[in-house]
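Hello forum,

I keep getting stuck at the same step: I have a sequence, I want structure tokens, and every attempt I make locally crashes halfway through. Rather than fight my setup again tonight, could one of you with a working pipeline run this one for me? It's a single chain of 470 residues.
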Amino acid sequence: MEDLVLSAAQKSLRVNLNSDIYGSFAEIGAGQETVRQFFRAGGASGTIAKAMSAYDKDFSDAIYGLENDGRYVTESRLRKMIHHEYKLLEDRLHREKYPKKRYFAFANTVATINFTKTFKGHGWIGIRYQTSAEKLPNEVILHVRLHESDPKHQQETIGNIGVNLIYGANFLFEDPKELLQSLYDGIDKTAVEIDLINFSGPDFIQVDNRVMSLQLIKNGFTDAVIFGPEGQNLLPAELLYKKNVLAMRGSFRPVTKVNMDMIKKGYRQFIKSKRVEKEKLVVLFEITLNNLLADGGLDEQDFLDRAEILCSIGQTVLISNYQEYYKLVDYFSGFTKKRIGLIMGIPSLQEIFEEKYYRDLNGGILEAFGKIFSKDLVIYAYPFKDKGMKEPATIKDVAMHPRFRPVFDYLFYNRRMRDIEDYDPEILGIWSRKILSKIRNGQGDWEKSLPTYVDTIIKKKGLFGYNSKS
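Reply #2:
Ran it on my machine without issues. Output:
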């Protein structure tokens, strides 16, 4: 990594002085802030083939086509922009005349803060580009959420991110993690949040975008990312908007029959509610960053092993930096007002009633409960049974300070907390940590504790340090 962090002006000039980098800029909304940096830096004639703003919607539609949903600040619109502009470069700039040029098409489509400040703003930014004239193009696409309260500042931030992306794509592509970190050069993290990034193309064949999502959280660029069963990164705002959400937190190291019974039985109870639309329901397996750091450092392979299993059984995964449940509920409620369900074991429910987790709140545990249960939320609790226990523990067995008992009773009797009653009693003795130890030590009989095919995937791909001796 370079010791000196270059300014946007310095990066723009370095790009301009490279005679091989040549391409187009297309920016919708938030002004021509990115290309302006390159014009001001000097030497732009060697870099900029075309700069445009299809600000009028009819003009934009005429150039890039209509969007099915009628929106313009979307990934679909951005992709149409960079593909259209890149094709024009190939069509109009013949290789016989430009044998060494590395073409690029940069685009953004952004909506900044509105006049009443009820909408903070967001945008899509991307580049389609070559790292050599002989190669097929790469693509780097990201989504940002703007947090500054002044539109002028937001425009400047978008311009700086654009410069950082163009510079990083050309000079830092061999290290995608460094490229990712460089996007915030000269930008305060409080100004903008990057909550999605995807790399593709010949120079990024070895890049797993799930790992890049994890880097977003690790670097403090966002607090939550989501990826789907195919391993593709998903935009939380689009996935969760006006949806019912059912989430289950766990380590999933590996996912066991208990985990699957929890989600299956919790789901069955959740969809019985009149406030839940089955067709508009999103089910999430959540892993916290704190859980991923449980063994000290961030083990990317361990993360990928968990992700591989969950994706292979068709699950959508949320990685978050929300150790406390009230923060997770706050996050969901930012996208939807519909009913939210949380599935958790009795030990996790027990932790919710422990004061030590709320010392950073002025109102302590009562403030946290206000944040949680002021939303349309129901907790579904799965029973717990350890050695020496005659009967499984349920909600009524949760211990707490006497002064919280009235709150607990109110929530329980108003069915804001519900026991999962049709559980499978035969699997309560399954523990992920014990299964993990058996997998690594080559001990037999661990397979029967896992869902169908999960053991096959672990053996086939050598996940979780699988040891074949038995």
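The chain has a mean pLDDT of 93. If your local run keeps crashing, start a new thread with the error log.
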